[in-house]
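Let's study my pick:
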Amino acid sequence: MLEESLQEPISLIVGLGNPGKKYTDTRHNAGVWFVELVAKKLEISFRPEKKFFGRIASASLEGREIKLLIPETYMNESGKSVGAFTNFFKIKPSQVLVAHDEVDFPVGKVRLKDGGGLAGHNGLRDVSDRWSGSLDFKRLRIGVGHPGVSKDVVRYVLGKMPASEKKLIDESISVAQNLVPKLISGCWQDAMEELHRAC
């Protein structure tokens, strides 16, 4: 019964954001914060890799290798990095977890999602485009809140947040990173339910 409940293990975790000090602390970089936290907990360091247009790291966990990628392209060109990496290592979209900011969620809410629509997120759209429109990849949606008016979203996600909100996000992604062992073992449903209960 246990084997029947397992899904395909995650082989690659990607953190979406924008490169450079100007964007380090902006809401749009929430996905980067998550992947950097995973690396910190695994006690591994990133190294730049030009052929993948990003920073990469890898580690062994639960008897499996997990790879981490932070694209050094701008958000709207995230697929350039993700596509190059997954093509080289023969990683299928279904084996990839993409962490990203989510304006449709309040600050502190984080959810896992398996496939489905892109909710207007340009980074996700570019990743999907590089996979010939595939929506089979998994996502970690990190709530950053909404400015209230659609026309203000771009300015909002590229802006820095109050310390109180950053603390909530840090706490929520800390909970999420604790689920990485389950994700790379294929225990997707268990991870989803645990995250739902926690935040």
Q: What stands out?
A: The first helix runs from residue 2 to 5. The beta strands are 12-15, 47-49, 54-61, 64-71, 96-102, 110-114, 138-143.
